[in-house]
């Protein structure tokens, strides 16, 4: 099975976390933490900064590593490195997603998370 290595930004502002809804592809309408594939010539931290700039026209700062999710989808294995990030500059403009929300500990369960992202929710509730 093919492995896809991606990074995800858990963008935090106080006690809120930023979540996005996919606007395209096989998992359209599912909720996720924004991010994308790591290119061969970059580190995971460089990849997440680039992806957020491309997807949300926002410059972020990577604060800390949070977790790595290993998840088997039917057609591929996903290895997703997740980082806690904060906004340095920009307004989180949706360039690829159809919707977005700021969620709190009490509202994290109110969106339909993609399976790989769902595994992060319990751990996130501990830090919010």
TrEMBL record:
Keywords: DNA damage, DNA repair, DNA replication, Hydrolase, Magnesium, Metal-binding, Mutator protein
PROSITE patterns, A to Z: NUDIX (PS51462)
NADP keyword on record: no
Cross-referenced Gene3D superfamilies: Nucleoside Triphosphate Pyrophosphohydrolase
Keyword Magnesium in record: yes
Catalytic activity: 8-oxo-dGTP + H2O = 8-oxo-dGMP + diphosphate + H(+)
Residue span(s) of domain Nudix hydrolase: 1-128
One Pfam family in the UniProt entry: NUDIX
EC supergroup of this enzyme: hydrolase
Cofactor: Mg(2+)
Entry EC no(s): 3.6.1.55
InterPro entries in the record: MutT-like (IPR047127), Nudix_hydrolase (IPR020476), NUDIX_hydrolase-like_dom_sf (IPR015797), NUDIX_hydrolase_dom (IPR000086)
CDD domains associated with the record: NUDIX_MutT_NudA_like (cd03425)
Residue spans crossing the bilayer: none
Coiled coil: none
PANTHER family xref list: 8-OXO-DGTP DIPHOSPHATASE (PTHR47707), NUDIX HYDROLASE FAMILY PROTEIN (PTHR47707:SF1)
Family per record: Belongs to the Nudix hydrolase family.
Protein name: 8-oxo-dGTP diphosphatase
Protein's organism: Holdemanella hominis
């Amino acid at each position: 099975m093919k492995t896809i290595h991606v990074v995800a930004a858990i963008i935090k502002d106080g006690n809120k976390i930023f979540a996005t809804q996919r606007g395209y592809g096989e998992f359209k309408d599912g909720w996720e933490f924004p991010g994308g594939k790591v290119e061969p010539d970059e580190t995971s931290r460089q990849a997440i900064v680039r992806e957020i700039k491309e997807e949300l026209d926002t410059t972020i700062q990577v604060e800390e590593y949070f977790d790595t999710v290993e998840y088997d989808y039917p057609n591929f294995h996903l290895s997703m490195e997740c980082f806690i990030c904060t906004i340095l500059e920009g307004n989180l403009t949706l360039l690829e997603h159809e919707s977005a929300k700021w969620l709190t500990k009490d509202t994290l369960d109110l969106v339909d998370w993609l399976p790989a992202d769902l595994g992060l929710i319990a751990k996130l509730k501990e830090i919010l």
